[in-house]
Amino acid sequence: MKTTDTSKMTFAQVESQRGLESALKMQPDEVRRTIADSGLKGRGGAGFPTSTKWNFAAETVGDLKYVVCNADEGEPGTFKDRVILTDFSDLVFEGMTIGGHAIGASKGIVYLRGEYTYLRQLLEGKLEERRRTGLLGKNVLGTSGFDFDIEIRMGAGAYVCGEETALIESLEGQRGEPRNRPPFPVNTGFMGRPTIVNNVETFAWVTCILVKGSKWFEKIGTETSHGLKLFSVSGDCRASGVFEFPLGITIKELLKKVGGENAKAVQVGGAAGHCVPASEFGRAIAFEDLSTGGSIIVFGPGRDMLHVAQNFMEFFKDESCGQCTPCREGNARLLEGIEMLEQGNCSMKYLRDLCRLGETMQLASKCGLGQSSPNAFLSIVEHFKDEIMGRIPAAC
Amino acid sequence: MSHSFKQDCSRAPTSLRVQKINSPTLQVAVTVHIDDREIEVPVGTTILEAARQVGIHIPTLCFHEDLCVAGVCRICVVEVEGHRNLEAACAYPITAPITVRTHTRKVRMARRHILDLMLSEHYGECYACFRNNNCELQALAQEYGVDFFRFGHPEKPRYEIDRSSHSVIRDMDKCILCRRCVRTCIDLQEVGVLEVDKRSNQSKIITFGDKPLGDVICINCGQCINRCPTGALRANDPTDEVWAAIDDPSKHVVIQTAPSPRAGIGECFGLEPGVPLTFEMNTALKECGFDKVFDTNFAADLTIIEEGTELLLRLHKALVEQDAAPALPQFTSCSPGWVKYLEHFYPEYIPNLSSAKSPQQMFGSVIKTYYAQLNDIDPQDIVTVALMPCSAKKFECNRPEMCDSGFKDIDYGLTTRELAQMISEAGIDLPAMPKSDFDDPFGTATGSGVIFGATGGVMEAALRSVIELVCGIKVEDLFEHADIIPVRGFEGIRFMELPIKKTGPVPELLAGLVDDWTWLEGATLKVAVAHGTANAKKVMDDIKAGGRCSECHFIEFMACPGGCLGGGGQPIPTSPAIREARAKAIYAEDAAYEIRKSHENPAITKIYGEFLTDGPGGLLSHKLLHTQYTPRGKYIV
User: Fold this and answer.
1) Per the count of CB atoms within 10 A, which of A105, A210, A296, B528 is most buried?
2) Residues A168, A64, B68, A327, Cα dihedral to 10°
3) Domain encompassing residue A170
């Protein structure tokens, strides 16, 4: 197992407390403008502009507002939030505190993935330390009128709770199922109050931006995808682990850095992402091309792409919350289709039907889970049709 | 400005989950383009509501007018210009000008796929289903031209049918997981027996711990049945047993018909809601083979006398005997769903519940005693059937204590739907039947009995009698046409106060009870009416908190929204408009009666004169017409 060296990451070079200090010297709208100038977009994968989200929440009338950190890192192949929480949790808590100042919230909640329960003690210790040093609690850093504290709440292992409204339902004690949107959490979130839900990494970058300036961040990356990003790299490569790259990096460049040059395909964005064949390795990892929350899974020449698809569909078939028809039944039908392909008895016509079904799932599902769950299936069918069709069932 | 609307819920009652859009920039009204039509709507209006206003049809399945929005079936998806994904029309509140298209290629494809997917998990054949021809899934499959199972069709059942309840049968193989039943039970009724278990296509609607429905705190109201789009939920149907009794020449089969089924049954025969078929039904029942057809309203009038007497005695205890705990307010006990609700959720208030049986059960014991004697029939050979708008009545007639006649007082409870099935099986065109009267000795009852079917009806009937029997004046002196409007309508909880300025002489019927009414002079009778157990819960919590409801003397509770006319045995579908039409029919029937007050019913005078001779609240009526209750609590074994 490869361990990740985090000492060279930007996060390691940013001194804690400085970001918060500089944010508290600004008016909330100045903080939001700084974030806007940096071009920071959500690091969880959807790539929604962070400042826009914060502006909505700031403008919404409400006596109580919440800052929620989505630490329910559940996307297969993603583990960078775990690394950030282990080594740089102060930057995350600081980013949340800055967020509290920026939108006028006094309460932060970290929704921590159930499987990361072992981190809880460490994080609680860090929070206690911050309270002791005046970085949390009443009048943060002596700023009169700005109170902010953070609480850790545990998830219970449902992938769908990474979806922000399902996460909020779960926080409220309900079954973790996505809500109808609109209204969005920035308007009606936790306990009906305006709430921003941001990824662990997003909050850490917020702190860095407040320390190093929005210009620094804005200059990195492409025209519409700014800044640096952590990637969780796994699969058939020599160096798996967490890496920091600028957005806009091509798959080819990335594979070179991790020693995966002979890959036949790369899954960008985890199970919900896209399977990119070698012929398209020139594509960029950026919001305008291949968007990802950080998961990069490398498939070497020996991998059976049908098994890859099967693995992903089994995951979604289990993790669909079961609420809406396209996702609940659609994932099951796609998985059955893969089993038929395995047996060599899926006709071209039925495969076409399944691909159209995948399109319906993308269009008509209630939340991001169902809207993205057919992606892997569709891209594997598109790029590896020859490999997955015409199989002969193994003799029993 | 802010705008609230009902939105999304999975577990908590809607009352707790009203979502708000709060923004200084929100407009009051927005213009929407739907297909080629333009309409201005208030902010927060859903696409579905806007489309309906301009007459554009968007199919729905999980949506129900009585329930909060879920947005889960996705059949109502539409395309909104500029949106990457399709939006669920039922769940999308319009907050800005948008352009909507309701039948593009994407929309048609998605809807068809959604239907295909539902059918891929929906076990069963339409022709062997009680919802054949009245199934929303079947109707949609027809609307979208489904002529094959694109993604397959289950060949064998996955679940066992749960027949444990006297009232509601659950066949989860037919469930399409629209969750209307869950929302009905949690949000509309606030009982909370049903919930979703597991995820993905392993999801299933279950009771607590997946226990049989008969073992949990289900109140049998059957509101879930009325809102189920398919045949997954139905009432426990005794028609085979009823036919067998009819076919058995040694059995004397009598049926009593409640007011609400008469106002609803026409819907099963293609009539608009609100066309009463009371007297046509009498003829049809005889044609089916019932030996006698009685009017439940007789027993409703009897209930008013018994329950009213009980109330007056409780008031006497409080005001004259200075009893510190007279168990006031008195609660009505004619709705078996409400009674079981109270037994489960507020068992400490059982003393407040009137000990009078419901009209159905009173009639049962009267038929197997008084009627049997009058006609010299061995009660053992009498089969009593009750036509009710209600699924809880099936449970009620099976309560072990309901055997005061020495036999099972009511043998079978039949719903409106089940009787319609029997009538159609007999080849009878109900609306075309000639009219005929109810059978003697109970005859046609009063208008007071009829309005028992609507929320507030029991209260109105009771007030009509109390005013005349206690105050010695005519109801018409206080209320035009004796219509006590304040207790009518569909508002969840309604209050009325009646100052008793002067009293009259004690009428002969009640002569044994008190010497005079003067002790009531100057008092103000305070009453309330609540329908739907969610409202009942509000009233009970208010009583607990010592609020306005705790000052009432008498409260009418009905488990079902709208009262019996919205009961769990009534024709499917249901909606506020349908219930309103049924209520109109019921009040119109009341207005047409010559006798409209329970105490003026000659059959009532007669039964107290020759059978229940120790009068209302007397020993014999306590034996036959009153009952006791079981504190059940919320915890199940």
Assistant:
1) A296
2) -20
3) 10-219
